[in-house]
Amino acid sequence: MKCRSDAYAYNGLDDHMFLADASARLEGGNVNDAAELHIGGEADDKAQAYRLLAAQTTALLEGESDAIANAANLSALLYATLPDLNWAGFYRLQGDELVLGPFQGKPACVRIGIGRGVCGAAAAGRRTIVVPDVHAFPGHIACDSASRSEIVVPVIVGDFLLGVLDLDSPTAARFDDVDRDGLEAVVAAYVRSLTPRDGRVVS
To answer: Per the CB 3.0–4.6 Å rule, which of 73, 139, 193, 199 could disulfide with 61?
Structure first.
């Protein structure tokens, strides 16, 4: 999404209205008629809010295919929109390790070996990992001592692993299967922004 001053520009001041705005754009309706939802509460409402967040992600990244720029904007969006986070960001695969990418939160570990910690395990297995208690996860890498729970979603294009999306929370058991499904849909929207019509990834 190019910077502009119209009604669809995300300004970080009203996350709920922007979620509603994304829904209205998809449905061709009026933003004032769209339901304002937040991520939390009942599972059905939470799943619906994630569907709107995925639509918001698509709208935010529309027209841009740079992996770093879109990861930066998506990190900011997730950190501003999802409650009870203390870190949100990306690690990029470089050789045989994950290297810190765009993020929101405190300074983080710069390099993580594949298979090490939650991020490395998610990258090695190419599957989302939900950790209710990071202190109980073997080999957890403590970049921020305040973190209690974590979810890591691999970013995959075709057979190629680009990296991982990592979210931390200071609350134990913050993430569940609804978060897993919702964030996988958000990551899919991010991946689509990087993939032009011929299917080749733009980095």
So the answer is: 193
Percent of the chain scoring above 90 in pLDDT: 68
Which residue reads 């958000």 in tokens? 186
Enter the tokens of residue 112: 């993580």
Q: Tell me: the pLDDT tens digits for 10-56?
A: 333 344 444 455 445 444 443 333 333 355 556 789 999 999 999 99
| pLDDT on residue 169 | 97
C-alpha 141/C-alpha 189 separation (Å) is 28
Judge whether 49 and 74 are in contact, CB under 8 Å. no
Q: In 3-state terms, what secondary structure has residue 16? A: helix
DSSP state of 126: T
Distance in angstroms (rounded) separating the CA atoms of residues 133 and 138: 11
Does this model's pTM top 0.70? yes
CA atoms of 172 and 149, how far apart (whole Å): 5
Q: Which residues, in sequence order, are bridge partners of residue 156?
A: 161
Q: In 106-203, where do the E strands start and end?
A: 111-113, 129-131, 149-157, 160-169
**What's the whole-number average pLDDT of the chain?**
82
